[in-house]
Every structure is written in structure tokens, then in C-alpha cells.
Amino acid sequence: MTDLASDRRETAHLPGDGHMWVMVLGDLVIFGAYFVIFMVYRAMQPHEFLAAQQQLNINAGVLNTLVLLTSSWFVARSVLAARAGDHRRAIALTYLGGACGVLFLLIKAYEWTFEIRHGYTLASNTFFSFYYMLTGVHLFHVALGLLILGIVVRELRNPRRRRASMVESGATYWHMVDLLWIVIFGLLYVMR
């Protein structure tokens, strides 16, 4: 029994690079502060926030949530393929995860265009200031995540650079982006 326990300790590790975890934890702290500030303002202006919130397209929010969850599933499968040495499959799955990320950006661009055309801009009220700030900063993170996924693909294509830790680091960041969206979706679209 002790041999099995020592084998588990040798194979158990924090996925990815420690520096990526520092970056992810830092982002989570910053977004956590944004979320707390949002909740304080929401508590001070509940009627204004509720009225403005009802102008959002819940279907677009749900669709974007499903798209990002699907992208995370592809990226998680990519990590498993890379660990198994199936680099071709890992590349294909990373591309699929990235394609879902691009689709997320397109849906959000459509949604922003729709909101702006109907007069809901950054200056409309406090809720929309938070809406555009939170979703805008998140969009930046999605774009950065797409860049990171591109680097993962580049690394997987080069037999001398292939490292499971690189794929794990990319996945760690991508899953953080997904987690942030789930909280943003809950705060902006669902919580009444």
C-alpha cells in the first residue's frame, strides 16, 4: 500500500507552470474586487440595476456560457491528449477550443452592437457602466487566452518543444477565463 501512495505522490503535481497560477490568482483577486464593487453599487441602486439588467439579451448570455463551457471541455481534452502523447489530437482539440473562443467574441460583439443601437451605452447608467467594464475586461482576457492557445498549438507542433506543462498552463488560463464568465453571467444576467 505504501508503494501505491508513493507512486501517487510522484505523479501528483500542480498542472502547468507556477507563474501561470500566480497570474491566474492575481486576476481572480482583481475580478473579485470588481464583483464586490458591483454588488455594493447594486445594493445602493437595486431598482435601476434591475430595470437596466432586463434590457440584456439573456439568450446571448446563455449561448455565450455554453460556448465557453464547450471550449473548456475541448481544452481539457487537449491536455489529456498531450499527456498521452497524441499531439495531433491535442492540436485539433486546442483549435476547437480556440474556435469556440472566437465564437464567444463574435456573439459578444453582436450583443454589444445590439445594446448600443438601442441606446444602452457606457454612459447610460451605472449598471451599463459595470456591464461594459466587466464584459470588456473579460473580452480582453478571452483575446489573451486565444493568444495563449495559439502559443500552445505552436509548441505542440514542434517536437522539441512539446511539453504537457505548456498545454496545462494554457488550459489553466483558459479555464480561469471560463470561470470568470460564469460569475459575470450570474451577476449581470441572472441575479435579480
From TrEMBL:
InterPro entries: Cyt_c/ubiquinol_Oxase_su3, Cyt_c_oxidase-like_su3, Cyt_c_oxidase_su3-like_sf, Cyt_c_oxidase_su3_a-hlx
One MF annotation (Gene Ontology) recorded for this entry: oxidoreductase activity
A Pfam family recorded for this sequence: COX3
Keywords on record: Membrane, Oxidoreductase, Transmembrane, Transmembrane helix
TM spans (from-to): 21-41, 61-80, 92-110, 130-153, 173-191
Membrane topology category: Multi-pass membrane protein
Residue span(s) of domain Heme-copper oxidase subunit III family profile: 20-192
One BP term from GO: aerobic electron transport chain
Organism superkingdom: Bacteria
Location in or out of the cell: Cell membrane; Membrane
GO cellular component: plasma membrane
Catalytic activity, as annotated: 4 Fe(II)-[cytochrome c] + O2 + 8 H(+)(in) = 4 Fe(III)-[cytochrome c] + 2 H2O + 4 H(+)(out)
Family: Belongs to the cytochrome c oxidase subunit 3 family.
PANTHER family the record matches: CYTOCHROME C OXIDASE SUBUNIT III (PTHR11403), NITRIC OXIDE REDUCTASE SUBUNIT E (PTHR11403:SF6)
Name under which the protein is recorded: Probable cytochrome c oxidase subunit 3
Natural source organism: Mycobacterium talmoniae
